[in-house]
Amino acid sequence: MVAHVTPRLEQQLRDIFDKRDRQNMQPTIDAFLEVLAENPGNAYVLYDVGGSYDTAGEEETALGYYEQAMDAGLTGDTLRRCLLQYGSTLRNLGRFDESLAALEQALALYPKSESVRMWHALSLHAAGRSDAAVAELMELAVDHIRTEDLLRYEAAIRGNAGYLHSLDRG
């Protein structure tokens, strides 16, 4: 397995991604599969193949490519995106515990990622853990919406979020 991307390959992947049509993903899937055939086992190409299947609504197929990409040594921000998309896809398939596990792995590796925190909250909610989901969104808001109006209530927001976390039985 290969976990690197050359500047040429990175540009090739970006060009395919930029041309995608979310309403007709087959040309994008075909283009990524062609690049994968030229770069077998490349973690970054595997990730893009998975993402294209995911966008096309072929979640089960996407999961396999995401798993292969992670097994092949995906790193950095691409690993963060892969874990997020993997967790989201698992949630879409009703596999909530696995979704939360993937997103919790992403949170451990990327604790400041707003997108990971947002998708984690969504998966908490989908898993029936609405108290924890609301708490996480409250914390995300107070961490990043730094307005005078919200900052006035920061301690109360954090206190309420802590209370909601304490109610969570997950």
Molecular structure report:
There is one protein chain. The relative contact order is 0.09. The protein has 10 helices and no strands. It has helices spanning 7-19, 26-38, 43-55, 59-71, 76-92, 96-109, 114-126, 130-144, 148-151, 154-167.
Notable features of this structure?
single chain; 170 residues; mainly alpha; Serine Threonine Protein Phosphatase 5, Tetratricopeptide repeat; 2 domains; 76% helix; elongated
Please give a quick description of this structure:
This protein is mostly helical and 170 residues long. 76% of the residues lie in helices and 0% in strands. The model has no long low-confidence stretch (mean pLDDT 96).
Morphology call: elongated
Question: Into which percentage range does the β-strand content fall?
Answer: under 5%
Q: What is the helix/strand order?
A: HHHHHHHHHH
Total DSSP E strands: 0
For the biggest sheet, the summary is: none
Please work out how many helical segments DSSP would assign.
Answer: 10
Query: Would you identify the regions where 5 or more consecutive residues have pLDDT less than 50?
Result: none
CATH class of the largest domain: Mainly Alpha
Q: Taking Cα atoms only, what radius of gyration do you get, to the nearest Å? A: 18 Å
Structural class: mainly alpha
Helix content: over 70%
Q: In angstroms, what separates the terminal alpha carbons?
A: 36 Å
CATH topological fold name of the largest domain: Serine Threonine Protein Phosphatase 5, Tetratricopeptide repeat
Overall mean pLDDT stands at 96
Number of domains: 2
